[in-house]
């Protein structure tokens, strides 16, 4: 059935195709393009109505017959393609949608513009697209028509124009009408029409207005722009961007003509809205825009079929297309979106970061982490669980775990150093530690603080004592000095009394541990070298520590009273280490002394002062609130916590509120090294402070704050952080089981042990036996300390520092050692039989430490009857008399109190006729024992299992 095509008709009548198209439109027939076919009825009507005239007249008479609205039956054939092109234009307003179709219709008739223009006030509407329509002006005109009809449908304003011009609209208005009739291409057509229907109407009018009111929709513009369309039906929320702006209020502003926007029936503009989907992804402005954009197709980000579905929807007054699909798509989109941002980790979806840095304090918990990145802590817990870490949300975790989380979620985790942490804490109270207040003019000279270091037995202690007592002797004959951790001496240099502060804990360990805490108390180091012994390993070590700290060194060549003393050799040796004596042209002062004979002590003091003057600018503000370091602290039975502090700047006074590490309080009294009460301590002055609530640690800082309350708050926060850090640290300590586990993973390991025993014989025996263990190359056993006697805090300290395990043979912890081990996470294993200790350690070293099991009786059942089965053997009909019988547990058979068979398995366990995994007390059951048929009535079947018990 050869249908006639528009251009054929045009040719036949000698007019342009466009003209024919126009006529069809007026007749209510929608024909897309010149190459579209025309249904026979429509063709006939055309011939009937225009045939004659056309033959006689010219095409110039375009609007002749407004009549012929009845679109009904015949279906013009829509030409989808064209629309696509127009689509772009459509964007601007809902009306656009309406136009679109029209446009489509007119695609090829650019020349025919006059016609459209003429007829349609609607045309005016058409123009509105003006702003963006760039695409094709020609189209517009055409569009005018379609809109017109639409307008009439309901638009007040539009009607005005439209109505007059063409009755045709009516039919058109009816969305359904035209479309059903002809077209397989409904979509494209529909599109055009669709607008007409409900929404279209609104829009039509709206559009214009919109054009005015609504601010230009910026970005959306292109495709989104359309969306913004005022009149538009409200886009599906699900597809809408979350921001209000996205809803059109933003850029496009939802100028929506109030209710108008809300499409009426067919309105739900679903159609347009639909476009949304396409736009949805576009997000910003997307939703709304999507709508419009879609008609045009071009606008559609997705590029999906333009207009298609929208049309359909519009036509039917309901969200076109398979609704199912729409809904699904929403969900799918959301999921897609989430999936994009949320990586799956251990089965959990957690929002991922963009490499942002997350600062966390030591010992932070998952909750802290979750708070910082805005996710749910529970998800992190689960995530970690899947990653093999069992951690609760509020538990402190170590840095490795935080790093792991950060890595997985794409965050850079920065664990704040204790110093930074404290700095932040103080600054939250508007305090700052470590800086002198004021300017240069507020600073005054302060005495140097000296630490004595050197090799063992080279005379450090003796020298410190000599210096102290010599000085005391000077001052007050018979005076008794106490060891409070530091003291000050006075010496005469060039006629001036100069003070020097000595930290009287000899050795570089204290010096280093203080430095490790970020506290550098020492200005100058005195390196003691015994002249008869020369430079020894610890001499070099001390030298390196001092150098590393950038502390000037004064060498005390000691024991020169001894005959074997060879001070020159010492100078030579130290020169090799870069410490060149002044007399050799270097800058280090060497003083030959004798601590024993108290020889040249004053020269040594002078050398210290001169070195300080030469290389250091030791000044401090003595007027500010005091700040300094805790040198040592202990709990005094009568006086409570006592701390020796070294004031570094400011002046500490009795009555000051201070916070020292996690301790705080008000200075109740201060004592100097002579036990004398003092009321204030200026820079470099050591003082024993009474009045703290707890004993701070050596190397911790102290500072005076405004009031007790502030002191307490700072101290409490420090303590909480310390606790959290400790907890986190504890998690990484090693236990024998951990060691075994890591062995299983094939990692090469060192197992550090500290042995403590009741007598030296057992410790030696244990050590020898352990040394003789053959555990292969990949494991190494190191006994880092051994000793006789109780396990002390020192042992725990060492174990904590070196990740060691303490083996206690017939000994127990002393004092607070146990508590400390618990706090530090140090494992202490107790044994009283040597071979047991050896066995376990060997097993651990070989990765064979087996779990210990204990039997746990689950319950008993009494055999009440026995059924013989050729297939199953003897089936025992039982009554569970206590507990339960479990199918997979072991059983034993007890007859008259004697176990007649043990460790049996059940071949089957049934409750009634069904297999049961367990049967509880009070119920009957049938069971068959595997490989044991010798059962009798009244026998007792006991169910038990082996449970692993945690090792002590
Ligand atoms: N003859 C002589 N002996 C000294 C002198 N100084 C220290 N001694 C002796 O050397 C030994 C070690 O002295 P200490 O002061 O304990 O040495 P140290 O460096 O403190 O030793 P450690 O505390 O073990 O590191 C003691 O017996 C002192 O009496 C000295 O100037 N002359």
From TrEMBL:
Location within or outside the cell: Cytoplasm
HAMAP family assigned to the protein according to its UniProt record, in alphabetical order: IF_2_B (MF_00100_B)
Disordered: annotated segments: 49-338
Single GO cellular component term: cytosol
Compositionally biased tracts (Gly residues): 264-279, 286-307
GO molecular function: GTP binding; GTPase activity; translation initiation factor activity
Function, as annotated: One of the essential components for the initiation of protein synthesis. Protects formylmethionyl-tRNA from spontaneous hydrolysis and promotes its binding to the 30S ribosomal subunits. Also involved in the hydrolysis of GTP during the formation of the 70S ribosomal complex.
Compositional bias ranges of the Low complexity kind: 82-127, 139-159, 173-213, 239-248
Protein name, as recorded: Translation initiation factor IF-2
Residue ranges constituting the Tr-type G domain according to the UniProt record: 445-617
Biased composition (Basic residues): 324-333
Pfam families (UniProt xref): EF-G_D2 (PF22042), GTP_EFTU (PF00009), IF-2 (PF11987), IF2_N (PF04760)
Bias type Pro residues, positions: 61-81, 128-138
InterPro entries reported in the protein's UniProt record: EF-G-like_DII, IF2_II, IF2_N, P-loop_NTPase, Small_GTP-bd, T_Tr_GTP-bd_dom, TF_IF2_bacterial-like, TIF_IF2
Annotated keywords: Cytoplasm, GTP-binding, Initiation factor, Nucleotide-binding, Protein biosynthesis
PROSITE patterns, alphabetized: G_TR_2 (PS51722), IF2 (PS01176)
Chain sites annotated for binding GTP: 454-461, 504-508, 558-561
Family: Belongs to the TRAFAC class translation factor GTPase superfamily. Classic translation factor GTPase family. IF-2 subfamily.
SUPFAM superfamilies: Initiation factor IF2/eIF5b, domain 3, P-loop containing nucleoside triphosphate hydrolases, Translation proteins
């Amino acid at each position: 059935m050869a249908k006639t095509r528009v251009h054929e008709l045009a040719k036949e009548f000698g007019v342009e195709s466009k003209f024919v198209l126009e006529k069809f439109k007026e007749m209510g027939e929608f024909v897309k393009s010149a190459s579209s076919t025309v249904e026979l009825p429509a063709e006939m009507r055309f011939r009937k109505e225009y045939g004659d005239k056309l033959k006689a007249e010219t095409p110039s008479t375009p609007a002749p017959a407004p009549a012929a609205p009845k679109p009904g039956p015949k279906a013009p054939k829509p030409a989808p393609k064209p629309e696509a092109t127009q689509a772009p234009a459509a964007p601007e307003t809902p009306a656009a949608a309406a136009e679109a179709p029209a446009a489509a219709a007119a695609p090829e008739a650019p020349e025919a513009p006059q016609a459209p223009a003429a007829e349609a006030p609607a045309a005016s509407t058409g123009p509105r697209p003006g702003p963006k329509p760039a695409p094709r002006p020609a189209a517009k005109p055409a569009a005018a028509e379609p809109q017109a009809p639409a307008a009439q449908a309901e638009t007040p304003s539009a009607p005005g124009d439209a109505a007059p011009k063409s009755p045709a609209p009516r039919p058109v208005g009816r969305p359904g009408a035209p479309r059903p009739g002809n077209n397989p291409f409904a979509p494209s057509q529909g599109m055009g029409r669709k607008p007409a229907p409900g929404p279209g109407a609104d829009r039509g009018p709206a559009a214009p207005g919109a054009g005015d009111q609504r601010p230009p929709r910026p970005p959306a513009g292109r495709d989104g722009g359309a969306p913004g369309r005022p009149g538009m039906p409200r886009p599906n929320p699900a597809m809408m961007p979350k921001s209000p702006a996205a809803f059109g209020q933003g850029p496009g502003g939802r100028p929506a003509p109030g209710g108008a926007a809300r499409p009426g029936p067919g309105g739900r503009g679903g159609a347009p809205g639909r476009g949304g989907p396409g736009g949805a992804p576009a997000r910003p402005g997307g939703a709304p825009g999507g709508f419009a954009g879609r008609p045009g197709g071009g606008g559609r980000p997705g590029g999906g079929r333009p207009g298609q579905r929208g049309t359909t929807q519009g036509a039917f007054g309901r969200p076109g297309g398979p609704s199912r699909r729409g809904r699904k798509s929403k969900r799918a989109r959301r999921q897609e979106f989430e999936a994009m941002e949320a990586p799956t980790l251990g089965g959990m979806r957690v929002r991922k970061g963009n490499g942002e840095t997350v600062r966390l304090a030591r010992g932070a918990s998952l909750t802290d982490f979750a708070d910082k990145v805005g996710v749910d802590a529970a998800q992190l817990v689960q995530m970690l669980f899947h990653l093999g870490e069992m951690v609760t949300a509020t538990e402190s975790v170590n840095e490795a775990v935080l790093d792991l989380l950060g890595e997985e979620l794409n965050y850079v985790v920065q664990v704040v150093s204790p110093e930074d942490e404290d700095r932040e804490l103080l600054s939250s109270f508007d305090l700052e530690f470590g800086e002198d207040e004021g300017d240069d003019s507020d600073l005054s000279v302060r005495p140097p603080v000296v630490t004595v270091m050197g090799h063992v037995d080279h005379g450090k202690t003796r020298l410190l004592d000599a210096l102290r007592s010599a000085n005391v002797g000077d001052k007050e004959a018979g005076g008794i000095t106490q060891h409070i951790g530091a003291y000050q001496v006075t010496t005469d240099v060039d006629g001036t009394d100069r003070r020097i502060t000595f930290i009287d804990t000899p050795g570089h360990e204290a010096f280093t541990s203080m430095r490790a805490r970020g506290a550098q108390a020492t200005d100058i180091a005195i390196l003691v070298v015994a002249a008869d012994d020369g430079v020894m390993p610890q001499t070099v070590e001390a030298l390196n520590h001092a150098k590393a700290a950038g502390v000037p060194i004064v060498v005390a060549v000691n024991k020169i009273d001894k005959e074997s003393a060879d001070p020159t050799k010492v100078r030579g040796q130290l020169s090799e280490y870069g410490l060149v004596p002044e007399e050799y042209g270097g800058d280090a002062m060497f003083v030959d002394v004798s601590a024993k004979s108290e020889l040249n002590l004053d020269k040594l003091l002078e050398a210290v002062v001169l070195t300080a003057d030469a290389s250091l600018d030791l000044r401090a503000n003595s007027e500010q609130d005091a700040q300094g370091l805790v040198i040592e602290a202990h709990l005094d039975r009568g006086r409570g916590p006592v701390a020796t502090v070294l004031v570094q700047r400011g002046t500490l006074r009795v009555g000051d509120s201070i916070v020292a590490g996690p301790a705080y309080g008000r200075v109740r009294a201060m004592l100097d090294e002579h036990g004398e009460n003092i009321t204030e301590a200026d820079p470099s002055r050591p003082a024993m402070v009474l009045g703290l609530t707890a004993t701070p640690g050596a190397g911790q800082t102290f500072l005076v704050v405004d009031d007790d309350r502030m002191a307490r708050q700072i101290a409490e926060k420090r303590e909480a952080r310390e606790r959290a850090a400790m907890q986190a640290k504890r998690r990484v300590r090693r236990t024998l089981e951990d060691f075994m586990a890591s062995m299983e993973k094939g990692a090469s390991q060192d197992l550090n042990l500290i042995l403590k025993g009741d007598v030296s014989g057992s410790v030696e025996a244990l050590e020898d036996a352990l040394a003789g263990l053959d555990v292969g190359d990949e494991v190494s056993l190191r006994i880092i300390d051994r000793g006789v006697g109780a396990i002390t805090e020192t042992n725990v300290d060492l174990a904590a520092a070196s990740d060691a395990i303490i083996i206690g043979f017939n000994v127990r912890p002393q004092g607070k050692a146990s508590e400390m081990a618990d706090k530090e996470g140090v494992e202490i294993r107790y044994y009283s039989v040597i071979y047991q200790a050896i066995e376990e350690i060997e097993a651990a070293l070989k990765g064979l430490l087996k779990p210990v099991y204990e039997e746990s009786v689950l319950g008993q059942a009494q055999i009440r009857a026995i059924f013989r089965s050729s297939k199953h053997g003897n089936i025992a009909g039982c009554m569970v008399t206590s507990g339960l019988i479990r199918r997979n547990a072991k059983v034993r058979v007890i007859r008259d109190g004697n176990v007649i068979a043990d460790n049996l398995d059940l071949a089957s366990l049934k409750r009634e006729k069904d297999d049961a995994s367990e049967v509880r007390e009070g119920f009957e059951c049938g069971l068959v024992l595997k490989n044991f048929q010798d059962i009798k009535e009244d026998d007792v079947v006991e169910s038990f299992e082996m449970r692993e018990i945690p090792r002590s």
